[in-house]
Amino acid sequence: MRASLIQIGVYDGKGGESIDARRQRVAALVREQAGADLVVLPELWTTGAFAYESFGTQAEPLHGPTYEVMAKAASDAGVWLHAGSIPERDPDGLLYNTSLVFSPSGELAASYRKIHRFGFDKGEAVLMSAGADVVTVRLPSTTIGLATCYDLRFPELFRRLVDTGAETLVVPAGWPERRRSHWTLLAQARAVENQSYVLACGTAGTHAGVPQAGHSIVVDPWGEVLAEAGADEEVLTVEFDPGKVGVTRDQFPALKDRMLGLEPPGR
Questions:
Q1: How much is the pLDDT for 262?
Q2: Is the pTM of the predicted complex or chain greater than 0.70?
Q3: Residue ranges of the domains in the chain?
Q4: Nearest 10 degrees: CA dihedral of 267, 132, 30, 11?
């Protein structure tokens, strides 16, 4: 299976790039990944994950302009596309940090509203509502589980994803450079403890004065790093074997020995 993580550069005041222009630029990057099985974009790449003042003004409905552009890009490239996340405004006026997943025909296969909001009683934590649903998507070769950025710090979400069939955990993010060591550590931890692949796609650049970590990463079920990006905008492409998840879980069946917390299926 081939996955391409597009580590988009979002820069404060970069040549006056508008959100519409960025959508078109990113759509072109997606189309260039024709031949990949899965393409992944970062969190809130239209606005920047720390550009809190833009969430309300740039929020869009689920089936808004980003949906339309990304659906066509997925169809044109013939790829499964995790289009990162957008600031979504629902019909009641509530804001969510919402991820979109498209099939190779351009159909919306799933959406996921971020459950754990970052900010410690400010920023995203107060501006956006929390999602409630645990979401997986069945692809031809693997089942992906959806999480977003700050979710990475909450292992119980990933256990629930595994219990609902996830084999590959996909995490778009806008992770800050000052905590980059946590990004790498947590991605590897989530892979090891869940015996799953982790595909974690971050942004480059600076959002509202906050330098971004970049360093998108792909980790296998044993915690080995298969590929890692640098700090700047780039496309990180990796080939991996989805069958390794089942082999790992059979050879080292640690998930069967869980005693506390969420009960494994059938127990």
A1: 58
A2: yes
A3: 2-257
A4: -130
